[in-house]
């Protein structure tokens, strides 16, 4: 199965993020005399992957921030029960876990051939280490959700937000750093156009 088809498995979760709002990341200033890209069209081509990943990552940020915002009990003003609210936490866990599983099994190995930060066997395995930190946070979150589901009177906004705060930085930093590493100005230094086309998520 191609990477393009695998990525479609996660698309239903991202209906709130329209393709029309997907922005191409701002290009880096090239310090050499010769321009890195021959034309704006070529620059957009090489930035497709970063833009697509940014689209996914922006959704995760929205999902996390909404979960955090409603943790104070204001979910009730949205017409949600505690059960409904806790289900949104389970959705965040599901979406991030599926996204990272696809990345690690099918996407990172291709990037790792040229970029060590995506290589599980490299000392500079920054993105894999971030995944580990994020998923430890998700494990803790799911344990807390299970506790609240078993005894809804035990629900604590303070405890919920403290759990989310425990992995907010590693999550948000990773989401931004991965998009940065996938910018065309970086990929063009390491991949041929044919190799790059094989990475795209159509």
| Beta-strand content | under 5%
In CATH's first tier, which class applies? Mainly Alpha
- The CATH topology name reads Four Helix Bundle (Hemerythrin (Met), subunit A)
Mean pLDDT: 85
Domains (count): 1
| Helix proportion | 55-70%
Segments where pLDDT lies below 50 for 5+ residues?
1-7, 11-31
Q: How would you describe the shape?
A: elongated
SS field, number of helical segments: 8
Structural class: mainly alpha
CATH architecture: Up-down Bundle
User: What Rg, in angstroms, do the CA atoms define?
Assistant: 19 Å
Biggest sheet character = none
Number of extended strands = 0
What's the helix-strand series? Answer: HHHHHHHH
Distance between the termini: 13 Å
Characterization of the model:
There is one protein chain. This protein has 202 residues and is mainly α. The chain has one domain: Four Helix Bundle (Hemerythrin (Met), subunit A). It has helices spanning 3-8, 40-46, 48-70, 82-112, 126-150, 157-181, 184-187, 193-197. Helix 3 packs antiparallel against helix 4 and helix 5 packs antiparallel against helix 6. Residues 1-7 and 11-31 have low confidence and may be disordered.
């Amino acid at each position: 199965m191609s990477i393009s088809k695998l990525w479609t498995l996660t698309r239903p979760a991202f209906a709130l993020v329209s393709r029309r709002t997907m922005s191409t990341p701002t290009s880096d200033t090239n310090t050499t005399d010769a321009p890195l890209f021959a034309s704006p069209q070529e620059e957009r081509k090489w930035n497709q992957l970063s833009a697509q990943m940014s689209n996914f990552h922006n959704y995760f940020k929205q999902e996390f921030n909404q979960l955090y915002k409603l943790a104070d009990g204001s979910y009730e003003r949205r017409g949600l029960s505690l059960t409904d609210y806790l289900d949104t936490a389970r959705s965040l866990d599901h979406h991030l876990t599926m996204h990272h599983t696809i990345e690690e099994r099918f996407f990172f190995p291709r990037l790792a051939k040229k970029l060590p930060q995506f290589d599980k066997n490299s000392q500079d395995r920054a993105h894999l280490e971030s995944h580990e930190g994020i998923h430890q946070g998700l494990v803790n979150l799911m344990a807390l959700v299970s506790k609240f589901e078993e005894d809804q009177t035990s629900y604590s906004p303070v405890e919920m937000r403290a759990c989310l705060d425990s992995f907010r930085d590693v999550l948000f930093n990773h989401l931004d750093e991965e998009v940065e590493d996938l910018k065309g100005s970086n990929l063009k230094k390491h991949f041929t156009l044919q190799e790059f086309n094989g990475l795209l998520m159509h």
